[in-house]
Amino acid sequence: MAELRYPLGQHNRADIRSQTGKSADGLTVADIRNGTITAADAAVDPDTLRRQAEFAEQGGNPQLADNLRRGAELALFSDDDVLRFYDALRPGRSSVAELQGIAAELEAGGAERCAALVHEAIAHYSRRGLIS
Amino acid sequence: MEPAEGTSRRSAFYETRSISRDVVVPEYPELGLIAFDSPNDPEPSVRVEGGRIVEIDGRSETEFDLIDAFLATHGINPTVAEEAMALDDITFARMLCGHDVPRTEILRLVEGMTPAKVARILSLLSPLELMQAMAKMRARRTPSIQAHVTNRIDHPLLIAADAASAVALGFRELETTVPVLRDAPLVALALLIGSQVPAPGALTQCSVEEKTELELGLRGLTTYAETVSVYGTEQVFLDGDDTPWSKALLASSYASRGLKMRFTSGSGAEVLMGGAEGKSMLYLEARCVAITRAAGSQGTQNGGIDGINVTGSVPNGMREILAENVMATLYGLESCTGNDTQMSASDIRRTAHTLPLLLAGSDFLFSGFGSIPSYDNTFGASNFNAEDIDDYLMVQRDWGFEGVLRSQGDDTLLPLRRRAAEACRAVLDELDLMTFDDAELERVVTAHGSLDVSEHQTDETARAGDAIIEREITAVDVVRALSIRGFELEAERVLEMTRQRLFGDHLQTSAIFAEDMSVLSALTDPNDYAGPGTGYRPAPSRLEEMARVRQERSHVELLAEQAPHAGCVVLTETGPAAVRPRPDEVVVGISPAFGVDVWLTLSGLTVGEALRQILAGIEEEGVAARVVRVTHSLDLGMIGWTAANLSGSGVALGIQGKGTALIHRADLPTLANLELLSMAPLIDGSRYRLMGRNAARNARGEKPSPVLLPESGEPMGPRYHAKVVALINRESQCLRHGDPQEIEVTWPS
Questions:
Q1: Which ipTM value was assigned to this complex?
Q2: pTM, 2 dp
Q3: Sheet containing strand B173-176, strands side by side
Q4: CA-to-CA distance for B153 and B638, rounded, in angstroms?
């Protein structure tokens, strides 16, 4: 694989693939019209987000890098799951047990950083009396 | 009516001024109504134990609220904290404004600072120093600008057309919102289509409740998000229905779909929500900005926002707003710097709020310049709106700062608006969502705002919005519909916005797409300002573009009105002017170009008519009149004085081609006069006639009452001075050496 340089769309347009293996230029209007391409073919690949995380780190922003790595983990979950995980973390939505369930679900899907975030939330929500 | 006892008419007048509609308050620190340095703000402090942050601003680990706890884990860098917190405040403030310490070193140190420390440092800076810090610290070198594109009836074709207008003007992010939440998917879809018509790459968002906003993004109907609000106290954060952890996961959710996202905060919000805990606005905002960085958001929208009028009500409020904007840049965040809510009923005051930031520059000068009329802004009027675009372009031209916008005429805008409205109509029809007839499309194309189009049933837009969600319509369906209906260019551009998600380049700090789809971000276009001659400077071609405003007129255009009146009077030179031939005369001295190259005065009278009235006035008083041309000077005092020295009575009336006139007497100094009518645009025929009569009465030794001009508060200079300069240039081209010439006046039959 070629060296990946920022911006990827300029330097590595042909190297970057979607989760279904499509290149950007493989996503054509013609294929959309004949139905061989769907929205799922335009999903960003987790490895691309991890590469962007490295760029962010080199640019001096480790927190943005963390966020992109969490994004890479979530990239493999469905829209409904992602919406559900977010909602569960909002105030008053979940019990400790329910959040532990979300964390387990994330871990099972390889989303360790996101799971760690949920465990942190459980600890601090409990300490501040937000959940039981 | 007599003024009340002990009051003046002047103070009664002040009550009628727009500024008197603004209500401000004294500081109430206990309510958080204090811009800087509340007595309740904590002392800055940090404690690091075993590489962990265990104390922040006087609170130890066990007392941490959710915000402290999140900052301790994800925000404050323990390896820098002790070094950074030990720095003297004023020393760091100087590092911030000077050119010796690079931006990257400031960013490194701020990583180790607590919110109280950052707030205290910024409270030390004057407005000018804040501007210097802003110029140095913003992330992207090239400024950009965001528009609000909304209308009060959620008309999708109007959204599409207004999106096209906004992009044509230079906006690179478009934000919409809806009065009816169910309309959101339809409005987002219309905005996406319209935004890609004039040029590719503008980013679009629909500001609604967090979960709905995310859903629109997941479907590709928006390309970024901004309404991800954070607050500076735990209670208000929870009242806002989120925690730092839910917000962090939300940020990651956007990243997971390749969507750009920034957080939102801004002073005044905690006060409005009754939970400021007695802290200063800047301290609470420091907590917001620190959380924003800690949660991994690439940027923030701050600087008042919805709370601007709260901040504006306390002393130093606007300095606090600028300090917030600078604060975002200190944390290395994309700065999307407010100016998106009208902060005063006074035009002077709302302009004063925005101007310092414009001069300093930021990543997005506005997080919503109202590109539509204020009545259509469903966020509420912005600080600048469609009504103000020309004013903004003129101020940009005056100062040569990068305001990012450009003037566009109907010749450019109308075809783009038509294309956008047609493309949107076709997609809505193809997807079986809504239909619009040709008459409505025409109304949309030429509309100023939603008052110019039909009020459709709002339930229709809501049902279309529901259908988009139920049928799971995505950007891919939009591309297909555009292509099927023959909008290939727009299909390709909308698809390219979808393709960009595969790369994620626009997830980096301060990323935008330029009109050639190149990525400008903190990585490709880092701000390198380090004093004069460095950083972003508008290119010569851009300065040229900035100079072209709607009100610009060439001298050829300004003088075009002269030619049709040529020959309105015939002034024939018959030889050198006679000297004092009789005692009972007034000499009328005319300027070099009067009735030669200048034919119309500034009031719209012809020079012939002005002269006829003057001569008639002199005649009415039974005094003889003679006309001479002064050829060696265009100065009105010199023209009048020269004529007075030729006059048997010693009294003369001088007049320039532009119509300015005076009465002079030979024994006075050249630059003195008996009467002067300097406001040529206000001199009508009757006043020229009175001038003639007064000159004659002066010649008879009387002391007439001077001619008065009508009262007018209109500033004459900005309206007429460009023309004055063009006319004076014509006078100067007619200058020649030699004595004054006797003139024979004849009137064309």
A1: 0.98
A2: 0.95
A3: B203-206, B173-176, B144-148, B364-370, B334-336, B299-301, B263-264
A4: 64
